[in-house]
Predict the 3D structure of the following.
Amino acid sequence: MTFKFFLIPFYVPDNYSPEAIALGEGLAELGHKVISNINYWYIPEENRYLFNEDSESDYDVGIYDYKYLYHSKKWTLNRVNTQKLNVLLDRNDWLIPEWNNKQVIDKFNVILADHLLAHVQYPSNIHPWAIGYTNRIKKYIDESRNNFQSENKEIVYNFRVGHNLRGFLLDKIKKIKSQYSLELRITDNLFQTSIESNSIDSIYWKQTAKRHNPDYYKLLNRSLMTLAFGGYFEYKPFFYQPYTLFERVVRKPFAVAYRLLTKFNADASSLIFVFQYDSFRMWEAFYSNTCPILLDMKYWNFKLPVMPVEGEHYIGIRKMDCKTLDEKLNTLTPETIMKIGSNGSKWVQEYYSPVAVAQRLEKKLAHL
């Protein structure tokens, strides 16, 4: 089959599209033809683009990245070829997904949506998806995979961007008395990089909107545990934005109760929901040697195509006061934590490699 990806150039601010890259890599490896409306994702080691511009060839499946749709919605929706199978990749941040629009839902056979929640009802063509990892991540992490330090007893954190969830939980984790020390390990910053200009790493750094960081991948491999959660929390009940007046009124009692509980240092986890929970950091941590510390995905109603198991593939945080995390860390030996990290790496390679995600899409298309 021929798959045509509809993308916009990476130099538009923060236009890194790892879901499209992983799918393109996997589909190509499975023997499909992959083309695009533009040249995208340059692979400097091979002096070629993963996606080559092709305006002439026919195609079987059109795959639209949500950023392409966002920047050209009216133009795009009027020109989607409904004689083809059409797929939307939607990792839209915040609570305003591109698919939350009847015109969009009606135009696409399959919508692969990130940040879904298990207790929310979605249209039948919306399926859970995730960032996953690409061949670049695989290559760079594999290069230092044997560098793990068995005597390491640290919980490392290295957040590139602040989310309110990260700030809140980090303050709580700093207060717990664990046998494992919490350590900030800075490898780069958002505004300036130590990566040499005109190098292969510099090309990747630019294409990933400053996310490519070889020193960070090495840090993951030699760290026992890594804080890898991300996202934001809001007062219940759950609604997509923009909020109506009714929805604002309904949320008000939860907001008041939350402020009262937190004022007296009481746990308020039952009054909030977490969104935009998927992150680049999570999948990099899963693939590496480290054991990721994340929110307990089942407890917080996260919805992925294949769910990891807390305690087997990662260490989970339930309530926002982090008391259960404190108790758990004090019962786990370094050897057990290393085993959880190893299990997580094997799990992510089985279910979220480029080939695995491409095969998942193949199965969905076969059932249409």
Q: What stands out?
A: The chain has a mean pLDDT of 92.
